[in-house]
Design goal:
Blueprint (H helix, E strand, L loop, with lengths): L1 H35 L1 H8 L3 E7 L6 E2 L5 E13 L8 H18 L9 E4 L2 E4 L1 H4 L2 H14 L7 H11 L13 H16 L8 E4 L4 H9 L5 E11 L6 H4 L2 E3 L5 H6 L7 E3 L2 H5 L1 H5 L3 E7 L5 E8 L6 E4 L3 H25 L10 E8 L5 E7 L7 H10 L8 H4 L9 H10 L9 E3 L20 E3 L1 H7 L2 H11 L1 H10 L20 H6 L6 H8 L9 H12 L3 E3 L4 E5 L6 E3 L4 E4 L4 H17 L11 E8 L5 E9 L6 E8 L8 H11 L21
Parallel strand pairs: 2-12
Antiparallel strand pairs: 1-10, 2-3, 3-6, 3-7, 4-5, 8-9, 10-11, 12-18, 13-14, 13-23, 15-16, 17-20, 18-19, 21-22, 22-23
Helix pairs in contact: 3-7, 3-8, 13-24, 16-18, 16-19, 16-23, 17-23, 18-21
The structure holds zinc ion.
Zinc ion binds next to helix 18.
């Protein structure tokens, strides 16, 4: 046992020695650090670190289909002062500022500063008006505390304290610079001292400087000056197409997480609605990164560009802004006319409550959206000033009725009923139905034609022309709701059009829909659905997209606002190709019946019959309450080879005929026709000035 203990001790001796050696070593090291090596270690500990600051890329611009600028960038330059890049020494700092003052004087520009004093030394006075503001008081307070100057000094006394503080007097108390230069140096240094700024957030010294001044300042080689380029959106055709173009602004609070996840900075500018939001990914570009190398005190020692920002892509919309303007004007003036006429006649509920509406123009051959007029509307250039009024206006100018409003189609739906009847073979184009006024097939539900006496015997095209309810009750009953809806869905009714804006899907009246709201479908519902009543409600854009598929032979194109995009330099152009969402199972007879029916309707409707250009139209009057009807009209033009389709809805517009004039005016503009639809000599296009 004893022996074991001895062995144990001997074995551990080398360890004890090692431990003692380590202790001595640490002690020596400690002495070195504490007493002899102070300076060297402080230097090593004061390390530099890098801070990355995002540089927002230039936002892509928005043009119409003909290259008319809609939302473009305008640049302004601000001369900034980066305090941390100025020399630390008081004398050198003043000398640098004196040279900046000299350059600005030569260029006729003045530094923008916040010192609340007027007059020339020694005749100084406080600027009483400035001194009244809380901001000014706060700054002064901060300044006095920082420099340990007592408050309540007379203006001149404070100024002289400042001169001393900034070392603007020499050892004998003489002024180093002339009065003007000295004054500006004081003002700049005071502003730097008491406004909040940090590296990467320099002080804006002179705003909106021209190229000459910017160049002169940069060439002077003064330390601490930066030229910052600012970019603002300007609108080429103010007040037109605002709902389509959209606004930009700071990221809304409820979308902050989403944008941050995509790599945006907190203060980034993003598209808020319209094309600005829809094409955000393209318009945005890629942010760059500037790295600031700083010491422990936040002084910027160096900066370099880690990643150059990539400008966003320019977007060419399918919108023709002149057509858009014509559509907006036609819609607005018609709504005002309906109200004026109704008031003049004094007949109740004849349109005096009309206050809003929508008009869409759609390419029947590509799905391109040529105009989306929503009334009332707003002006992007005065949006901020107008906001309170816009937000409180009961007619909701900020609501884009063309894609977000859902309206009963009324009799414009009968064309879909006709196609489903023909294609399901429940009728032929020659099927003759005898309208006796009241539809008596069912014992318990007997609706009437709008013409109480009945239209008598009609074939399909005449029934469309006369908008006979009875004919379509019978067609709907024979076809059945399931078969009818199969074709309606193919035509895009109650389906998304595919447009890049946030759109409402609308409702296609169906047993499933009625069940979803806790009710059962009855045979009477089918009759109402067949004439566009029941739960049917669609967006104005859906209506023009549906008519396009019906008159172009059954191709349902995806609605789009994007014609093409290109990069900043224009070297990479990408055309947006038409996309087909689906093919309607319809034949030439069905297409022909729709076209002839709409032609007949145009000829029989008072509001359209005098129009000379060959087109097809169909009115709809949709009851929205006991006393109010929406006016609806769909159209295509020209008759032989349909190029465009249009839809117009006027809320509380009394009857479908009231929706005709804005559509005719828009067609006239598009095809360069007179008011009554006759050809005009070619339009003089404005000469674009040479660049
Ligand atoms: Zn009838």
């Amino acid at each position: 046992m004893q022996q074991n203990k001895r062995k144990f001790n001997i074995r551990y001796i080398p360890l004890y020695v090692l431990y003692a050696a380590a202790c001595i070593l640490f002690f020596v090291k400690l002495v070195n650090i504490q007493i002899t090596g102070t300076d060297r270690y402080v230097k090593t500990m004061s390390m530099t670190h890098e801070r990355e600051v995002a540089v927002q890329s230039i936002r892509g611009e928005i043009y119409d289909r003909n290259g008319v600028p809609l939302a473009t960038n305008e640049y302004s330059q601000t001369l900034q002062l980066d305090y941390s890049s100025l020399p630390a020494d008081n004398g050198e700092k003043n000398a640098t500022l004196a040279s900046i003052v000299s350059v600005l004087d030569k260029c006729g520009r003045e530094a923008e500063t916040v010192l609340p004093m007027t007059g020339t030394y020694p005749h100084m006075e406080y600027d009483e008006e400035m001194m009244q503001t809380q901001l000014c008081k706060n700054r002064m307070y901060k300044f006095l505390i920082y420099h340990n100057i007592k408050s309540g000094l007379k203006c001149l006394d404070l100024y002289e304290e400042i001169l001393k503080e900034y070392a603007l007097l020499d050892e004998d108390g003489e002024h180093i610079y002339d009065t003007h230069t000295e004054d500006i140096i004081v003002r700049i240094r005071y502003s730097l001292d008491c406004t909040d700024f940090a590296p990467g957030n320099p002080y804006p010294l002179v705003s909106d400087i021209d190229l000459k001044t910017a160049t002169a300042v940069l060439e002077s080689g003064c330390k601490g000056v930066l030229i910052k380029k600012d970019c603002v959106r300007v609108y080429g055709v103010p007040g037109v197409g605002s709902n389509v173009i959209g606004r930009i602004g700071k990221i809304p609070a409820d979308k902050m997480d989403e944008y941050l996840a995509k790599g945006y900075s907190y203060d980034a500018t993003v598209g808020l609605n319209g094309a600005e939001a829809a094409f955000e990914d393209m318009l945005r570009g890629e942010d760059g990164v500037t790295v600031y190398v700083e010491d422990d005190y936040g002084n910027v020692l160096d900066s370099y560009v880690k990643k150059e920002p990539v400008p966003g892509r320019n977007i060419y919309l399918t919108i023709d802004i002149e057509l858009q303007e014509a559509a907006e004007k036609a819609l607005g003036s018609q709504i005002r006319k309906i109200v004026a006429d109704a008031r003049a006649t004094g007949i109740a509920d004849s349109g005096e409550k009309a206050d809003s509406g929508a008009l869409t123009v759609f390419s029947a051959k590509t799905g391109e959206v040529l105009a989306l007029a929503s009334y009332p509307t707003y002006d992007l250039t005065t949006f901020s000033e107008d906001y309170a009024e816009l937000a409180s206006n009961p007619a909701k100018p900020l609501f884009d009725r063309t894609v977000s409003g859902a309206y009963q189609p009324g009799s414009t739906f009968k064309l879909a009923t006709a196609i489903s009847g023909l294609m399901s073979k429940s009728i032929t184009q020659f099927t003759c139905i005898n309208d006796t006024g009241k539809y008596t097939y069912y014992d318990d539900y007997q609706p009437s034609c709008w013409l109480r006496s009945g239209h008598g015997e009609l074939e399909l095209v005449d029934a469309i022309g006369a908008s006979c309810n009875y004919y379509f009750y019978e067609t709907g009953r024979r076809t059945g709701i399931e078969e009818m809806n199969k074709y309606c869905r193919q035509l895009g009714l109650g389906e998304y059009t595919g447009i890049e804006l946030p759109e409402t899907k609308g409702i296609l009246a169906s047993p499933e829909y009625k069940e979803s709201i806790g009710q059962r479908w009855s045979p009477g519902d089918t009759l109402q659905a067949a004439i566009g009543q029941s739960y049917n409600s669609f967006t104005p854009l859906q209506l023009s997209s549906y008519i396009a598929a019906a008159v172009n032979g059954g191709t349902r194109y995806k609605a789009t606002l994007l014609l093409r995009s290109c990069n900043y330099s224009g070297s990479d152009v990408q055309e947006n190709q038409p996309q087909v969402l689906g093919i309607v199972e319809m034949d030439e007879t069905a297409q022909d019946c729709v076209k002839r029916g709409m032609k007949r309707s145009k000829e029989l409707t008072t509001a359209t019959k005098e129009y000379k250009f060959p087109i097809g139209t169909k009115t709809g009057t949709a009851q929205t309450s006991k006393t109010n009807n929406n006016a609806v009209l769909v159209a295509f033009a020209p008759y032989d080879d349909p190029e465009i389709t249009l839809s117009c809805v006027i809320e509380n517009g009394a009857n479908g005929g009231n929706a005709a004039q804005p559509v005719l005016d828009t067609i006239s503009y598009y095809f360069n026709l007179s008011k009554n639809g006759t050809r005009l000599p070619p339009r003089q296009t404005e000469q674009t000035p040479a660049e």
